[in-house]
Amino acid sequence: MKAILSTVCAVALLAGVLSAPASAQGLPDNIKASKTITVANVPNYPPMEFKDPKTATLTGLDIDLGHALFKKLGLEVKWQEISFEQMVSGLTTGRVDMILSGMTDTEARRETLDFVDYLTTGAQFYTTIDNKDAFKAMTDLCGKTVGASRRTSFPGEMEKWSKANCEAAGKPALTIVGTEGSADARTQLRQKRLDAAVQGSETLPYLLTLEPNAYVIVGQPFTQQHQGMAFAKTAPGLRDTVAKALQDIIADGTYKAVLAKWNLEANGVPAALINGQPLK
Fold this sequence. Notes:
By secondary structure, the chain is α/β, with parallel strands linked by helices. The chain is 35% helix and 26% strand.
């Protein structure tokens, strides 16, 4: 009887393994068992993630991309809304399994996190349409007050740009204001408390569509970076499995369709990257 039961159990186990997507075999045991992955997200960065104003439903490019990835892996996704400041601690303490929330892959963040890069991005100046003649060139902003979310890498990048393009040329430095987020930056722009602001190049086309004849872009992106899905250093298996799933949906056209839905085809990557490097 024991032998029969052992055989039955072995067959059942084998069936379970064979029924799981091949690309999901590297998932951690707890995620395999629950068939659920918990993902940190802050829905305040359209078109990457935001609440639909009509339905209050979570939507955006990151949301669509997440659902496509986790479907490929045979997983349900649980979106965990936490503040941007708490994301990293939520990841390292196991409250969430990964972060997918418009996070830029930077060298500083790689000290504590690993990234699967899925989108190109760059910091870019913009201003209100009534300032379009005053700020035709990026260097016209030297000496002006420019804001960006203090939770992002933008203030530091603005400081570097200012030193290289304003101060090095004998012009006054940018006055940099850290805002509570991109929405706060736009509010301060409209209130004339800021002369200009900075956002990721992936968000500005959507912003201009959302609020037509309100803003204009100034110049070109002054940084070139990637947005990445973030993982704890202790979870290389999960990181690699998600990277391979991303490569799969790039190959089958799903990724391209998600980008097209949000008019961000120009920001796509040709292949998945881990910490900026091609998959091995």
